[in-house]
Amino acid sequence: PAAAPPPAAGAGKRIGAGVFGSVRTATAADGKVVAVKTYDHRAAKANACVARHMATEEALAGKIDHEHIIAPRSVHRRPGRTDLVMSFASGGNLGQHLKKNHVSENEARRIFSQLVDAVSYLHGKGIVHRDIKLENVLMDSDANAHLADFGAARVGTGSELLASMQGTPAYMAPEVASGQRYKGPPADVWSLGVLLYNLLVNGEFPFWGKNLDELKRNIARSTPTLPPNLSPSCRDLLRKILVKSAAQRMTIADVKKHAWLRGCEAPDDRRPGTAPLTAIGVGLGSPRSVKHLR
User: What contacts 24+ positions apart, CB below 8 Å, involve 260-263?
Assistant: First the structure.
């Protein structure tokens, strides 16, 4: 890590804070506004998970370069804290964007395509994100999407079996939620499928429950009801991503080649009598209730 102070002329406003650190804006030496994520060393010493996230983001700093990814570009240690400097996206996160804007299927395709490109790049470098969700997608002033927050990421070949249960419960793949050893890339693809559902159904979730155990059971066993207004091609993609078996799930390369992302239609394979969307998912209370599980 660099010993020099962050390349910033002054701290700006705080734009985020949580268990794993705080984020503020700052002005770089070239006059551009950047984001600075700060890890408190006391928090890292007291919490092994915070320490792992800090170490992972430090290790990845300067090694990820993609137009739809915001990752640390440089690391700067100060007494009691570590600062990670990265690009600043002024449009807030994707969850905030959905609260303010109606997203059509075509707009969802544009945003999702950008994220698929980002994840494809990461998987090509042997990096799995492991915490893809609305809050970890940042929007710029032109409403372009950027995948962010690499504290839970893992670097390897992609074929390793992982054991730690990482991520936000509502986005966890069945193999992760059930506590099995799992491969990272299929789990990322599943999370992308949940995020696509979020985009298409106003931030709602395909699987949810009144508590964590019920949520995990529904992820493992339930089949989400897809909105009838979606195009056949879009429904086809969601079905092929949200496959319970990791071995049978689409890879990120398969997703990139799917007809929906290429603007083509797939056959309408809805079975006669498919129920319209009422309460999203499996019909157990409000899908918004999963947010307290994060």
Answer: 260/109, 260/231, 260/233, 260/234, 260/236, 261/109, 261/112, 261/113, 261/116, 261/237, 263/109
Tokens of 219: 């992820």
Residue 131 falls in the annotated catalytic set:
yes
Token code pair at residue 227: 């909105």
What is the spatial distance between Cα 294 and Cα 279, in angstroms, rounded to a whole number? 21
Catalytic-labelled residue, pool 83, 117, 131, 236: 131
Picking from 75, 109, 70, 113, the residue whose alpha carbon sits closest to that of residue 93 is 70
Structure tokens at 273: 């009598």
Of 96, 101, 103, 66, the C-alpha closest to 227 is 103
Count, residues in the chain: 294
Strand partners, 100: none
Cβ neighbors of 258 (< 8 A, separation 6 or more) are 233, 236, 237, 240, 250, 266
CB 24 within 8 A of CB 85: no
Mean pLDDT score of the chain, rounded to an integer?
85
Structure confidence at residue 10 (pLDDT):
52
The two tokens of residue 11 are: 């701290």
Which residues, in sequence order, are bridge partners of residue 85?
Answer: 36, 74
Residue with tokens 């950047």: 34
| Nearest in space to 202 (alpha carbons), one of 267, 285, 107 | 107
Enter the DSSP assignment of 211: S
pLDDT at 262: 87
Q: How far is it, in rounded angstroms, from Cα 43 to Cα 50?
A: 7
Across the range 63-80, mean pLDDT stands at 95
Residue 8 pLDDT > 80: no
- Alpha-carbon span 48 to 22, nearest angstrom: 17
